[in-house]
Amino acid sequence: MNNRTETPSSRLEKPVAMFPKNHWYVAARSKEVGRELLARKILGKDLVLYRCESGEPVALSGLCPHRQFPLGKGTLFGDELECRYHGITFGPSGECLRIPTQESIPASCRLTNYPLVEKWEWLWIWVGEPELADSTAIPDMNDLRLGEEGWRAMDNGTFRFESRIQLSIDNLMDLSHVYALHFPAGLMRDIPPPKVHSELHNNRWTVTTETPVPADEFTKTLFPDCGDVVYSKFSSEFVSPGLVKAVISTHRMNADFTPGEELGTLIFPHALTPETATSTFLFMAETRNFSIHDTSIEPALLESNMRILHEDMEALELIESHTSAEIEYITSVRADAGALRVKKVIDEMIAAESAANAG
């Protein structure tokens, strides 16, 4: 792992206020980073990503320390990155290799190299204190069933929300909204309201709910012999500030309205990365333990996922447009308990980092 020090260019970048920095976040999907330069802003820092000719991924501060020209508009020559403004050239370590107008190179003329680790089909980056970077703290891909035998994984893409990351985490840890926002209006009126539970398990807050639901066309596409009503179990687990694991398990429903045989489980890892104080990247995947060799159901899966994603995006961006610098919840209800507990955990992380920086 590369050691790094803060450079003049990285100090000029404006960090995202009030969100944990000392954690691993997904910077990009593996397929997004190649021999073309990729400019991306993460936690308020301008970055440029590319792969060396060996295939090794690189993440550098994205503004030239000379005049802050965006290096995403630069040119790769082998593994060297040349700024298009004045031709100043940098190596993958961030070292300045060449200034066309002079032989001497000022010590301040270098880029920050950020630790970047490739796991599954995601590139994880550390933009916090360099001495605290520990790649073993990257979430376990096996826990997410990504690439695991007996499960089929799908990469659903990269998305950008014009809303702060905390709203996305609140949304994922609030399962009560699923029945209102993602189901047809009024569909749940004749079914007992689902109870939402939250618990701390293995130092992670998890929110769960379960209820009988009418089997719609989509459910019958996945499970053709499921009947007219199925029993659904939902859970959301706060893995880290940059990852929430959502799980949907579908069961046959017994005559007494209890869950019967499991028909299948879908896991949706949501990798969330702050772009700015009020915008967020979502890197979304899914994996399933049923019909793993049947790709004919995947268009229906993707269509359903995109509908839900855009419903969430529209709701969160509407909330952001009416939110001041700090989120203020005027009223909370019982179903908010899990989301509020996770927000407290994040607030404690922020406070600990602030105290360490002040010391």
From TrEMBL:
GO terms for molecular function: 2 iron, 2 sulfur cluster binding; metal ion binding; oxidoreductase activity. PROSITE patterns: RIESKE (PS51296). It holds the Pfam family VanA_C. Residues 24-125 form the Rieske domain. SUPFAM superfamilies: Bet v1-like, ISP domain. Keywords: 2Fe-2S, Iron, Iron-sulfur, Metal-binding, Oxidoreductase. This is Rieske 2Fe-2S domain-containing protein. It comes from Spongiibacter nanhainus.
